[in-house]
Design goal:
Elements: E1 2-6, E2 9-11, E3 17-24, E4 33-38, E5 44-50, E6 56-58, E7 66-71, E8 76-81, E9 90-96, E10 101-102, E11 106-110
Parallel strand pairs: 2-11
Antiparallel strand pairs: 1-3, 3-8, 4-5, 4-9, 5-6, 7-8, 9-10, 9-11
Length: about 110
Amino acid sequence: VQLVESGGGMVQPGGSLRLSCAASGFTFSSYGMSWVRQAPGKGPEWVSAINTGGSTAYADSVKGRFTISRDNAKNALYLQMNSLKPEDTALYYCARLVSGYWGQGTQVFVSS
């Protein structure tokens, strides 16, 4: 199993970023996938999940601002992040929580 995130960077408050996760080594379409983030000095925080049928769930802290999606044909997971806030600064991980597979993370930094 390999999960490789990309798309992080530095953005001003109110800006947008789109994170991507390339998955390989397993049948991507058969698993629910999640995004988890970890801010400096804090523990991991679940952000969002999407199941095999496309149903989604979000943490209250990102609801209405973030959108998770998947493209099973491309074995890809996405997180569209809008209206970013400084408190969204974190290392963002793509995760297959079943069996505990995580990527290496992509850094998001929100600051003016």
